[in-house]
């Protein structure tokens, strides 16, 4: 009988000068270098930095779920 998977969750903050999507993708790509079996993410907060009346940087807090190995 195959066991049901167990997941662990960790918090990350990605940043980008381009977009919210890019900030998410940057965080996941960096985490994937050291975490195996990443299977999902959940956005928990979006914020940014304003400079001279314009958006200078997007920051996105995400929870990343990865499957725990047997």
UniProtKB/TrEMBL annotation:
- Organism domain of life: Bacteria
InterPro entries in the record:
Dodecin, Dodecin-like, Dodecin-like_sf, Dodecin_bact
- SUPFAM superfamilies in the record: Dodecin-like (SSF89807)
Give a single Pfam family match: Dodecin
Protein name as it appears in the record? Dodecin domain-containing protein
* Secretion signal span: none
NCBIfam families according to UniProt: DodecBact (NF043052)
């Amino acid at each position: 009988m195959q066991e049901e998977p167990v997941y662990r969750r960790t918090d990350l903050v990605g940043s980008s000068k381009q977009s919210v999507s890019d900030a998410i993708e940057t965080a996941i790509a960096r985490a994937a270098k050291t975490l195996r079996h990443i299977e999902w993410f959940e956005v928990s907060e979006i914020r940014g930095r304003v400079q001279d009346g314009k958006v200078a940087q997007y920051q996105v807090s995400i929870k990343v779920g990865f499957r725990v190995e047997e």
